[in-house]
Fold each of these.
Amino acid sequence: MPDIVLDRVSKSYGATEVLKDVGFTAASGELFTLLGPSGCGKTTTLQSIAGFVAPDRGVIRCGSDVLVDVAHKVSLPTERRDLGMVFQSYAVWPHMSVGENVAFPLRVRGICRAERKSRVEEMLALVELDDLGERYPHELSGGQRQRVALARALVYSPRLLLLDEPFSNLDAKLRERARSWLRQLHHQLGLTTLFVTHDQDEALAMSDRILVMDRGVVQQVGAPEEIYRRPANEFVATFIGQCNVLRAMVTERIEKGRYRLKLDGAGSALDVHADALTIGDRAVIAIRPESLRLAPRGRGELVPAANVLEGELRNLAFLGDRYRYELTCGGIDLVAQGGQAMQPGSVSIVIPPDACVVLSGAAPEQPRQSGTPVGALVG
């Protein structure tokens, strides 16, 4: 299977630039996810690869073939790009049976009837619909229609599969089963796949690597655990799951790779690990809720090699497999997670230095700290 490479791809609609020098490489056989909020440019990126959108500048290559090179006026027609695509709406034709839907790409390519029949049977078995070939779309569930669309995209053996939020019309339970099934199918086929979603859980569970976008700009590319545990900036930290974002000033270099930062609004300090900081600089710290530990007030020192803040547990919420704690420490709001119920009141908040990620870029001045900034609770 080929790599797919985008080099400085840009697209504008009037004065609005929806893609700004987007560049990445999805490796052969990789399930590569484009993740971001609605309107961030991920679907426009996918449609540029498919040939439904013409970029204003940039280059798109698939293996050794140039699909788009704006500077040299190259734009391969969609039908010659040899790509399979599943749309958010599935686009399954209601007047055709399941078998006819899957066979359609073969028919327009002039494949003989006997080979069409053989390939359709093979593909329906692959997506576990081999006994439903005579049914029509209105007789299928949403998950079954989604698999019909996938079978139709795969039946002519494309070299690249594009998936544009294919699970968005499914309920939560069915989405979970569908993404597990698709991940297994991807491993089985080894097909280079670009997957678009705004669902962070979906991206983390399915992807080999994730590209996070915001307002047409690539924010970070990395493995799911890297994106979650080592976000490149504040947007990534708050968009992927919950995150406490604190603002501080660098006050002391304790030793190589270890610094002390004074928190805005709390009058407290945290020791953090970082490559290189300058005394007096502003800094942004990201801390995941599950990294915080709570202890009865004054007992935080029992935890070795950790920062301890004194605060108040204001609220407790039961979430089934865990509890969510809402905390206040001076002028800072924090969110933590844990497995035990606790009574509201005074607590010690234990924050291991390794849990503190110093984000790139200076922190803008804000009048109030918050452990749950806008976007932190999405998904």
Amino acid sequence: MTTYVGRASGRIERERETVEAKRRAYGRFRSRIRSIQPRSGETGAGEVVSGSAGGRVAGPLLEAFDETVASACADRPTMELLAAELGEGVATALGAGGTSLPLLRAVLSESDRRRAELVAMERALDAEADSLARTDETVESIREWLIEANETPLSASGFEELRAYHERLAEFREDCAALLSDRQEHLGRTTSADGRAGLRHRDLVAHLYEGFPIDHPVLVTLVRLDELCTECQRSVRDHLVRRV
């Protein structure tokens, strides 16, 4: 039987590293913003420099974004990333090299919003990791028991031993059912960051396991394990009937 829980755990660790790096980059970006003196009446672009992600950036605000956030997300051009992160309006204004006070405030506000979203994602990733750990602990203990029990043919077991096997398998199925219920509840929850941003766990799971052979590694693993226990119970019952 193949499980995907371990592979999913590895994906979470990589995502944690990415999100943490991005959150820290926003912290540096925010510090840079506060060091920039606002100017009024701007219409032209500031100094033009090459963007780290392959685009062209103008002005101190855009340069600060390029050297902090864009550097932590080097897979996208600076201007494309800026629009995705802070919005088209802010991206257009920064592209013109603006450093007016309203623009500085807008960039700070959008940066705080993104940082809150990243904090919410970090917390959601922690919750997902805990859910996987609980599942993995139960799944591995059941698998180890099944492997050990499989070493002794059922034909060599007595009636009481077979009945004990059957009861143990029933307990395993109850464990799987409880974890399936917990998992469904987990997917229905939303993790927030101090009420400022929220992330639905179902959306996080869809993002995390994109490209996996299955969409829900935990649910599929538990269902398959329950099916295996059911099949084993059926075999045990067949032998029990022969003993009657």
Amino acid sequence: MAGQSISRRTLLTALAGTGAAALIGCEPARSRQPNTATAIPDALLVQVDGGLGVLSGGERLTIPRGVATADGQAVYATAPDGAGTAFWRIDTATGRTSTRVTLPGQWLPQAVSADGTKVALTSNATNATNGRPQGRDVSPVLIADVTGVRHRLELRGNFVPEAFTEDLAGLFVLEWLPARAPDRYRVRVVDLATSAPGPLSTRAKTPVPPGAEEEMRGDGRQAVLAPNRTTLYTLYTHQPDHRHTRDLVSGRPGNAHAFVHTLNLVERWAYCVDLPHPFGAASASGHALAVSPAGDRLYVVDVASGSVAEISTEELAVRRTVTLARATGSAHAAAGHDRLFVGAGTAVRAMDGERLGAATGWSVREPVTGLVLSPDGRRLYVGQTDAVSWHDSATGEQLGRAEVPGLVVVHGLAGRS
């Protein structure tokens, strides 16, 4: 997540394209754009009305039931197969697929390990980004790879997979409380050897004491994975009367309206970086998160107030905040080596990433639905209504545009090594 962006803890894809690919049941569908259409220079991961997908030159692959790896190199797909579920991996650069295996029962892919080898699947469509699950007492979760089932969990309570630990021995989950009528959740880690969920550690690497686990009621807006794939950062907004673990342990009051939840996938600790007012006061959709390619800086933007915050990932503290012109609509951000790009409405703004100085900008034809930088940083892809345009990242000049019917959002790059 700039690195590669995940829409709140979930990675996606949807290979779409200028020609609307007809879906055949739940199987991936491939189409080729007309010869007169402009080929997109870099392969992109997108979401379209039909599911997840990849835009790659003249080809468009739509995957109704899939989840992408963090680096965009592969998509894991499923399709009903009688009483079971067909499960396979698609290479986004070549289109090659692994041998299909059949999983017992009906499953949907939800989360992929940071190294791209393991997948957590659930029996329903609820994932870590799409809202509150229905009440339940037991949550079945399947862990699989291209060879088949590795673990089958029957978690007592209402759990949703979020991410894997770096050593693949644990699964981070959202536990929704109370299980039958959920209105809040907390992050826990399940030991895959014992199937037992337990608390995370503090930043000091000590176990969180009983009663001091954070319970969240707000909106998880967006998550990004650090470039080295060891840390997951998630932006939360609208946390009424929220108290962090450090506040619960110390007895201090807490009432954060927005913060970045930092989850260390290696050492299994979590820490929250509070954001100052007015972050969190306006709609969650007006907020966005991006990480620098070096992984040393996080940027949080709130377009409703025009606020931009820079967070040091080493210190886990806000270094500074600046103000841009206010905007309306959904916010999107992408960070390059020396620039930060912010999109909302029909405007794209570019700021100096080091100094967060005065912004320049340009307008696009329709409301922005995603910003993605090319691998060399020279092109900025801008998702719009039923289209993707790409621009010179230094000047904003439009270099090309491709129609993508049904485009929902542009997520990141695909098919990179």
Amino acid sequence: MTSTPDAASRLFAQHVPFAPTRSQCFDAARLIAESVLGSEPEVSCVIGIASGGIEPARPMADYLKAPFHSVTAKHNRCDAPWQQATGDVEVLVDDTLPDRFGGTVLLVDDIAGTGATFSAVTAALTGRLDDGAAIMSAALFRNRGCARPPDRWAWTVDDWVVFPWERPHHGLTQPLPPLRRVSAP
């Protein structure tokens, strides 16, 4: 278990949540995977951060023909919309994760709210990296308030996002703009 405090805040316009479709999320995952092809060192595995990162990580691993693994990281108190992250991230690495990683480990989550989850998971995995190995982070969404953005993301948002693999939202939602390109810092 690893815990990392972080004081950054997510930004929310508090209009109505964004509601990507499963197809939009799959297309974004594919574009992100395409954007890391040719990375040096080559992507050796994809790790989905449970629970939200599992859905986009699986198609990325398939596209990259890389093994898929998962870790669990939690910091939200509940699933209620527009809540600020605590900044205190608990990472649970189970026994099925390999002891050592070479190449580039691609960490995937559905959204980077503050960057604290990626920082905490990276810290939990750093001791498992071989010499020359690297960690790269990717998220479908980056909140505009994210202090430490991932290495790759599809959309930048300033409101809550309701994912198709979460409990349905019973109010108004707003569509996403078309995805034109993958972003990087």
